């Protein structure tokens, strides 16, 4: 109890999450009494980071940064535009579709929000969209990024819980596409009410073809990553390293827009982002060990099961916990802290590990767009200057639609496991 | 980072092309990553990039906020000082443990913990002296999810 | 008093030999000390990896663990002598060797080398290693050619696979299933119960009962804790350890014989047993390679142990039950 109290207090006074986790963990060790328990911490920090799959995360971040830098994002946006630009709210639809293309390149929702906030939101404003609506569409689409593989969140989940990362990747594809489709439906249905503009003319077939060809280099990336992993050539970590190689090759030899200085900057920023995440993972090793020793996950599991042993209720409780805590805390940190506590519950109620993983990842992704701590909202607001409150109002229908997708995939196992089963990752 | 990318590539190429069956690329990658990650943690301190919740603290009066931020920094310093102290024991203990694949002791790998903790301590002392709790909104970094 | 006991298997005594051993041990200790000692079990890697468990026992953070040879190797490299391939004739031989002079010598050497541990026994991990793969039936030495086999990050295991003609790649345990599924690797080696529980039959077609390795756990207790116990309590501890070892052997054989073991695997995979000639060819290919490797990498003490191991194994292989 003391440990939980100290942890919450630290968070409130603004201590970085990683340090708060570490201090709380050490307080836990102290409460056990005896120097030998204090000596456990360095080993747990080391062991917490000692997992090969984690390496995929910095690699995917770096590959995404390079692709972004050399202008691939712009090509993908252009492609989406020529494909669906002709309909009412064409640019809004294009935004969604571009998010799907972009998702194949990066595992990051905030990267999507930042890139599209800089490019598509101004373009939509010029075409007559209201800025709050443009931001809402971008935010809604941004979570497709970490849902469709590659996904940093899936890497963390798979490494921590010993679940096949390839299987999680396979399971993410359909929900990601479903989010895109249902958000496009929301755009279409609300088109009249929001008075969305209609483009004067559609793209010609020639234009579509030319744009398609110029984006081929970008579209090849997800094919390489997914094909490599699902086709059994490489492990996810190795696929990530190859993605980096591919992005470097395209940047240096095809577009020739990649300079050594820029690359160095990207390497540094990748290392920084990685450090911010890994510090949480490292210190969670201490806190997690203390919790295991004190049998806290079992106590929490028993408390939940005491409420109800109905699988659907337990699932609902898990989703609610993730969504609510996701409103106030960084989602990678939540995953690292709560997965070890909540995943045993999913085992008790007989959920397939990959299915449970998808529920976790969808719930946390959706919480990326909920205030007050919605990373995508932060990014969009800081990039575009739009107020978070105004974006949120326009976001409501999208949010409800995405919650719908979450519920469907949480309770319809056959749908959630369709691809993983087809590819043989589970049975 | 570059070494890491090269190391993982080597693992793949080995499996498909050279068939040397090198046992070490995977292990080396893990230990390199731990060193890189732990050092990245310290550079994040200097730039105040580690994410925290700022919703509450931003609404507090300046004086109180400054005190709390100072406390927060000092606690972080205590955390890394502790990690440094026990990390030294951990790393020297690693001298008696073998990394099977390399046939060398674990000490140079375990040393990542005390060394980076020491660097973090220095960084923290420097930022505490620099900011004295006056850091504005603690930075929100663009966090990939 | 509480004895903290960590291990890396599921907490079901019918599921795996590790927990069968632990459960029996805990039961005997609680009953025979009349509740003076109580064993608190931390299963399923709750406190860390097998290797971390060993460190925690050495540091007195927990009191006991079951360490695999892989986990022990980092602290006690001489344990590599157990990896002499194709040594044992059958499971009964392993009982005789680890309960006899060799087991005693190994335990004493471990205790002397490590200083802060007491060895209570060598429980069964699930029997001999078998090889599975997705490419072809392996019946003869030549069939290993070019098969990419996952091994633990133990150089001797790699050497053995390479001596057979296969390619050996280390891969983290968590990646093995998906690696086999997608074809990043072709095969792996493990005891039959492990193959069954890890659901490898879903992704592997061929199983060869090579029986090439036997890799027991080491049952460890912190020395300070042990020496703080009364002689009566210590005697109980040794009794409990013996019963734990017996239970691990019994459950391993039962699992092998049940539909969760070989019988079950036969429905899902093509199972091959080696003929005497083919096995002899594999002995020929691997044992000299292993001994050359051992001479090159292991120290004097290890080689003395290896000699004793070979003598004792031969005696056990030649002796018959109650004979
Ligand atoms: Na993605
Ligand atoms: Na959120």
From TrEMBL, chain A:
<feature type="transmembrane region" description="Helical">
    <location>
        <begin position="92"/>
        <end position="121"/>
    </location>
</feature>
<keyword id="KW-0813">Transport</keyword>
<feature type="transmembrane region" description="Helical">
    <location>
        <begin position="133"/>
        <end position="157"/>
    </location>
</feature>
<feature type="transmembrane region" description="Helical">
    <location>
        <begin position="51"/>
        <end position="72"/>
    </location>
</feature>
<feature type="transmembrane region" description="Helical">
    <location>
        <begin position="169"/>
        <end position="191"/>
    </location>
</feature>
<dbReference type="InterPro" id="IPR004681">
    <property type="entry name" value="TRAP_DctM"/>
</dbReference>
<feature type="domain" description="TRAP C4-dicarboxylate transport system permease DctM subunit">
    <location>
        <begin position="6"/>
        <end position="411"/>
    </location>
</feature>
<keyword id="KW-1133">Transmembrane helix</keyword>
<keyword id="KW-0812">Transmembrane</keyword>
<feature type="transmembrane region" description="Helical">
    <location>
        <begin position="357"/>
        <end position="383"/>
    </location>
</feature>
<keyword id="KW-0472">Membrane</keyword>
<keyword id="KW-0997">Cell inner membrane</keyword>
<dbReference type="InterPro" id="IPR010656">
    <property type="entry name" value="DctM"/>
</dbReference>
<feature type="transmembrane region" description="Helical">
    <location>
        <begin position="239"/>
        <end position="258"/>
    </location>
</feature>
<feature type="transmembrane region" description="Helical">
    <location>
        <begin position="6"/>
        <end position="30"/>
    </location>
</feature>
<feature type="transmembrane region" description="Helical">
    <location>
        <begin position="395"/>
        <end position="412"/>
    </location>
</feature>
<dbReference type="Pfam" id="PF06808">
    <property type="entry name" value="DctM"/>
</dbReference>
<protein>
    <recommendedName>
        <fullName>TRAP transporter large permease protein</fullName>
    </recommendedName>
</protein>
<feature type="transmembrane region" description="Helical">
    <location>
        <begin position="212"/>
        <end position="233"/>
    </location>
</feature>
<feature type="transmembrane region" description="Helical">
    <location>
        <begin position="270"/>
        <end position="292"/>
    </location>
</feature>
<keyword id="KW-0614">Plasmid</keyword>
<feature type="transmembrane region" description="Helical">
    <location>
        <begin position="312"/>
        <end position="345"/>
    </location>
</feature>
TrEMBL record, chain B:
<comment type="similarity">
    <text>Belongs to the TRAP transporter small permease family.</text>
</comment>
<dbReference type="InterPro" id="IPR055348">
    <property type="entry name" value="DctQ"/>
</dbReference>
<dbReference type="InterPro" id="IPR007387">
    <property type="entry name" value="TRAP_DctQ"/>
</dbReference>
<keyword id="KW-1133">Transmembrane helix</keyword>
<keyword id="KW-1003">Cell membrane</keyword>
<feature type="domain" description="Tripartite ATP-independent periplasmic transporters DctQ component">
    <location>
        <begin position="8"/>
        <end position="131"/>
    </location>
</feature>
<feature type="transmembrane region" description="Helical">
    <location>
        <begin position="108"/>
        <end position="129"/>
    </location>
</feature>
<comment type="subunit">
    <text>The complex comprises the extracytoplasmic solute receptor protein and the two transmembrane proteins.</text>
</comment>
<keyword id="KW-0472">Membrane</keyword>
<keyword id="KW-0813">Transport</keyword>
<feature type="transmembrane region" description="Helical">
    <location>
        <begin position="28"/>
        <end position="46"/>
    </location>
</feature>
<protein>
    <recommendedName>
        <fullName>TRAP transporter small permease protein</fullName>
    </recommendedName>
</protein>
<keyword id="KW-0812">Transmembrane</keyword>
<feature type="transmembrane region" description="Helical">
    <location>
        <begin position="67"/>
        <end position="88"/>
    </location>
</feature>
<dbReference type="Pfam" id="PF04290">
    <property type="entry name" value="DctQ"/>
</dbReference>
<comment type="function">
    <text>Part of the tripartite ATP-independent periplasmic (TRAP) transport system.</text>
</comment>
<keyword id="KW-0997">Cell inner membrane</keyword>
<keyword id="KW-0614">Plasmid</keyword>
């Amino acid at each position: 109890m003391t440990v939980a109290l100290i942890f919450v207090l630290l968070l409130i006074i603004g201590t970085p999450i990683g340090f708060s986790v570490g201090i709380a963990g050490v307080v836990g060790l102290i409460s056990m009494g005896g120097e030998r328990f204090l000596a456990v911490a360095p080993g747990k920090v080391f062991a917490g980071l000692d997992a090969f799959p984690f390496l995929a995360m910095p690699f995917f971040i770096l590959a995404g940064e390079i692709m972004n830098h050399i202008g691939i994002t712009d090509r993908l946006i252009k492609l989406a535009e020529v494909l669906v630009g002709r309909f009412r709210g064409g640019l809004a639809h294009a935004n969604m579709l571009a998010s799907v293309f972009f998702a194949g390149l990066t595992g990051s929702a905030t990267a999507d929000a930042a890139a599209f906030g800089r490019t598509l939101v101004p373009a939509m404003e010029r075409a007559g969209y209201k800025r709050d609506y443009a931001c809402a569409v971008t935010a809604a689409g941004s979570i497709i990024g970490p849902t469709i593989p590659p996904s940093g969140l899936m890497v963390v989940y798979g490494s921590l819980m010993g679940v096949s990362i390839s299987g999680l990747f396979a399971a993410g594809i359909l929900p990601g596409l479903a989010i895109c489709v249902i958000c496009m439906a929301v755009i279409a249905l609300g088109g009249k009410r929001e008075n969305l503009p209609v483009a004067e003319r559609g793209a010609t077939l020639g234009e579509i073809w030319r744009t398609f060809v110029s984006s081929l280099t970008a579209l090849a990336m997800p094919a390489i990553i997914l094909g490599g992993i699902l086709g059994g050539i490489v492990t996810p970590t190795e696929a990530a390293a190859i993605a980096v190689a591919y992005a470097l090759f395209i940047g240096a030899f095809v577009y020739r827009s990649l300079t050594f200085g820029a690359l160095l900057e990207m390497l540094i920023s990748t290392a920084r982002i990685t450090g911010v995440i890994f510090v949480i993972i490292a210190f969670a090793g201490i806190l997690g060990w203390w919790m295991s020793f004190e049998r806290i996950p079992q106590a929490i599991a028993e408390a939940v099961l005491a409420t109800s042993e109905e699988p659907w209720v337990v699932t609902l409780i898990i989703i609610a916990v993730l969504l609510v805590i996701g409103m106030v805390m960084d989602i990678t940190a939540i995953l690292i802290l709560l997965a070890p506590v909540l995943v045993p519950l999913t085992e008790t109620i007989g959920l397939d590990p990959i299915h449970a993983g998808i529920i976790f990842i969808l719930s946390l992704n959706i919480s990326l767009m909920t205030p007050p701590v919605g990373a995508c909202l932060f990014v969009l607001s800081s990039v575009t200057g739009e107020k978070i409150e105004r974006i949120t109002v326009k976001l409501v229908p999208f949010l409800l639609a995405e919650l719908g997708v979450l519920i469907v995939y949480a309770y319809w196992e056959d749908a959630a496991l369709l691809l993983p089963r087809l590819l043989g990752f589970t049975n | 980072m570059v070494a890491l990318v090269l190391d993982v590539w080597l693992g793949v190429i080995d499996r498909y092309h050279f068939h040397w069956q090198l046992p070490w690329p995977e292990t080396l990658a893990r230990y390199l990553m731990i060193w890189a990650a732990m050092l990245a943690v310290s550079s994040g301190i200097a730039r105040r990039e580690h994410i925290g919740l700022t919703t509450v603290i931003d609404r507090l009066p300046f004086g109180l906020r400054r005190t709390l931020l100072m406390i927060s920094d000092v606690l972080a310093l205590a955390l890394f000082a502790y990690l440094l102290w026990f990390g030294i024991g951990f790393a020297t203990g690693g001298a008696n443990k073998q990394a099977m694949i390399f046939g060398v002791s674990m000490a140079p790998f375990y040393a990542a913990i005390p060394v980076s903790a020491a660097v973090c301590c220095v960084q923290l002392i420097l930022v505490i002296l620099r900011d004295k709790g006056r850091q504005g909104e603690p930075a929100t970094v663009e966090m990939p999810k | 008093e509480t004895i903290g006991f960590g291990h890396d298997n599921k907490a079901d005594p019918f599921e795996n030999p590790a927990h069968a051993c632990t459960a029996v041990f805990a039961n005997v200790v609680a009953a025979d000390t009349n509740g003076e000692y109580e064993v608190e079990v931390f299963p399923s890697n709750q406190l860390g990896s097998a290797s971390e468990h060993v460190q925690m026992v050495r540091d007195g953070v927990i009191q006991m663990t079951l360490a695999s040879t892989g986990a022990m190797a980092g602290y006690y490299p001489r344990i590599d002598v157990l990896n002499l391939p194709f040594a044992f004739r059958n499971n009964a031989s392993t009982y005789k060797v680890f309960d006899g002079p060799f087991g005693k010598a190994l335990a004493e050497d471990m205790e002397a080398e490590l200083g802060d541990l007491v060895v209570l026994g060598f429980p069964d991990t699930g029997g001999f290693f078998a090889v599975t793969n997705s490419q072809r039936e392996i019946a003869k030495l030549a069939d290993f050619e070019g098969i990419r086999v996952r091994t633990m990050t133990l150089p001797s295991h790699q050497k053995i696979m390479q001596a057979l003609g296969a390619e050996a790649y280390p891969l983290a345990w968590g990646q093995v299933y998906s690696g086999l599924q997608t074809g990043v690797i072709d095969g792996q080696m493990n005891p039959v119960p492990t193959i069954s529980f890890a659901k490898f039959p879903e992704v592997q077609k061929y199983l060869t009962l090579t029986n090439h390795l036997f890799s027991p756990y080491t049952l460890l207790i912190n020395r300070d804790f042990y020496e703080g116990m009364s002689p009566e309590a210590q005697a109980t501890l040794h009794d409990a350890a013996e019963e734990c070892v017996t239970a691990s052997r019994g459950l391993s054989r039962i699992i092998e014989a049940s539909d969760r073991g070989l019988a079950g695997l036969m429905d899902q995979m093509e199972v091959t047993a080696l003929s005497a000639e083919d096995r002899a060819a594999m002995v020929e290919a691997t044992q000299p390679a292993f001994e050359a490797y051992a001479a090159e990498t292991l120290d004097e003490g290890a080689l003395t142990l290896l000699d004793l191991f070979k003598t004792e194994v031969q005696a056990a292989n030649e002796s018959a039950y109650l004979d």
